[in-house]
Amino acid sequence: MTYSRSESLHAAAVRLTPGGVNSPVRAFRAVGGTPLYISRASGSKIYDVDGREYVDYVLSWGPIMLGHAAPEIVEAVERAARDGTSFGAPSAYEVDLAALVVDAIPAIDMVRFVSSGTEACMTAIRLARAWTKRDKIVKCAGCYHGHADPLLVSAGSGALTLGIPDSPGVTAATAADTIVVPYNDDDGAGAAFAKHGEQIAAVIVEPVAGNMGFIPPSPGYLERLRALTTQAGALLIVDEVMTGFRLHYGSAQSIYGIEADITCLGKVIGAGLPVAAIGGKREIMERLAPSGDVYQAGTLSGNPLAMAAGAAQLRALRDGDAYERIDRIGSALISGLRHTFAKAGIPAQIDRIGSMWGLFFNAKPVTDLASAKTSDTAAFAKYFHAMLERGVYLAPSQYEAAFLSAAHCDDDVERTLTAARDSLAAIASAR
To answer: Using an 8 Å Cβ cutoff, are 301 and 77 in contact?
Structure first.
């Protein structure tokens, strides 16, 4: 299938932008081919510049919970825009969204809004180091916490997709303060604390990994990290940029019975506009300037359009039945995909928590980066393009989570399962 307008646009883009994209995973490097250029989106669908429609399971990499161009979000942005797109000064919009976040997440007494997940995680690390007066941080191999220097060590997401687990430009001294342990490995985390406990400022972790593919935490793993950090006087930073308000209203922490010292949020709290946040207990958060001595600032932090959009989405999620609808659709989708792959004789790991789900072409369970890397990326690339030809848009990498919205419906599930059956048959016949 040809995508003539996308190909033309991409040819122009590569002359103007590195790789032709403004975020690496969009470049289709892991699956081959030319990235689609999107002209519009509505509900559960996106439409490329060649006029083709796709059921969308990327959802702007997670922020879209109510569906694309949800009326309540559009109306909130339009109302806010009429009063100005940016003030560079405080507004009631910031107070409104902050109150919703604090009310929803027990671990958060205060919140500071920023513009990206990278900024949130970077600030969380700085705050933890200042609070503990220690330098080292612990992260899990394959977990992605943005592209700040201390976190681009054994990173997931685009770095993993592109085969660049450590980025040039990160100094050896910076990398030396980052201790990398396997995800879901109690012994590895324990060994790090046994050796470096008095130097560790914080552990930062995705409660449900979504940037080396979709990988849930093993039973007791997050509780073990909470215990280790508490015993060592270190902080636990839970990166909920992806999971916050997505798995259910509030944080994934409440699902797993833990409470972070610092929580990073993003994506859903902006409803598709650039918003992220750092939240935590009052005494920790008040170390941030201007209350305290840890500096952080942002010209567009608390942007009124983004605040209005986020508040509209959170209210809709709090007051409506979006999570129940997503759970019903998600159950049908995952059970159908498992049946389809099994019937085709293709080994796969297909799993879901709430509105996050994932697929590995792998006969064995995937629990960490090492096992994720044993998955068949060539098979996924064939499957990705076969599904794309049949109108289903998946993330262009096996190492990214997929998402559902409240706009997905039974017809979307049926269309996806039909496409999966036909795609697997086409791949088998081409062997």
So the answer is: no
- What CA–CA distance (Å, rounded) separates 267 from 61? 8
Whole-angstrom distance, CA of residue 431 vs CA of residue 429: 6
Q: Which of 16-30, 304-318, 359-373 has the lowest mean pLDDT?
A: 16-30
| Integer Cα distance of 160 and 377 in angstroms | 12
364 is catalytic: no
Q: Is 187 marked active-site?
A: no
Q: Which residue, among 384, 300, 13, 370, has the nearest Cα to 160 in the 3D structure?
A: 370
Q: What is the mean pLDDT of residues 164-174?
A: 66
Q: Are strands 38-42 and 45-48 parallel, antiparallel or unpaired?
A: antiparallel
Pull the structure tokens for residue 151. Answer: 């976190």
Q: Reduced to 3 states, what is the DSSP secondary structure of residue 205? A: strand
Round to whole Å and give the CA distance between 362 and 368: 13
- Taking the C-alpha atoms of residue 168 and residue 176, their distance in angstroms, rounded to an integer, is 14
Q: What pLDDT, on the 0 to 100 scale, is given for residue 206?
A: 97
* Residue 351 designated active-site: no
**Which of 3, 57, 93, 144 is flagged as catalytic?**
144
Rounded distance, CA 330 to CA 25, Å? 25
Give alpha helix (H) positions in 35-163. 71-82, 92-104, 117-132, 158-161
What is the overall mean pLDDT for the chain?
Answer: 93
Cis peptide before 217 (omega within 30 of 0): no
Q: Catalytic pick from 48, 177, 239, 261?
A: 239
- d(CA 138, CA 193) in angstroms, rounded, equals 9
Strands 262-266 and 356-360, how do they pair? unpaired
Which of 139, 267, 368, 412 is an active site residue? 267
Pairing of β 235-240 and β 276-280: unpaired
Please compute the mean of the pLDDT values over residues 383-389 and round it to a whole number: 97
Other C-beta atoms closer than 10 Å to the C-beta of 39 total: 14
Which pLDDT belongs to residue 174?
Answer: 76
Q: How confident is the model at residue 24 (pLDDT cuts 50, 70, 90)?
A: confident
CA dist 423 and 255 (Å) reads 35
Residue 179 in contact with residue 143, Cβ under 8 Å?
Answer: no
Burial zone of 335 (CB within 10 Å; 0-12 exposed, 13-18 middle, 19+ buried): middle
Asked if the model's pLDDT at residue 241 lies above 50, the reply is yes
What mean pLDDT is predicted for residues 204-226?
97
Q: What's the rounded mean pLDDT across residues 136-163? A: 70
Structure tokens at 308: 């209005």
Any idea how long the chain is?
A: 431
